[in-house]
Amino acid sequence: MKRRAIEVAVFVHRAEQLLVCHRTHEDYWHVVAGALEPGETFDQAAKRELREETGLDADPQNLELEQTYGVTDDVRQLYAAGTEDVVVGNFHVVAPAGWEPTLNEEHDRYQWADLYLASELVRWPETREAIDLLALRLRRGLSPLR
Fold this sequence. Notes:
Nucleoside Triphosphate Pyrophosphohydrolase, 3 helices, globular, 7-stranded mixed sheet, alpha+beta, 35% strand, single chain, 24% helix, 146 residues
């Protein structure tokens, strides 16, 4: 089955600490993320991915930051023929006090990182861009939502 070219990223944070998870097989740090399943909305996928990857049952809020990244040659075989771009919907959720994730098999460890370090740790430039936007909003005392 080919991977769908629509995905979500969920930024789990406490104040200015962001949850980053280490991907077991691909060996990189990332936020909660994954492709939408057939018939699923961005909101539904964000909630499902959050629950599957961390055990947290919450309703992530849309950051109103839709991004697109190009499919590179090294992963082109994962997508349907002719797929050139992947669309990502970005969400955030505030972690409850004292909560720690229960990781699924996709991850082997996690850390709470300040927003600057989290931006440095993650692999993808689009993820860094979203972290930087979230950090800017939080540091200005604004809601993460616009």
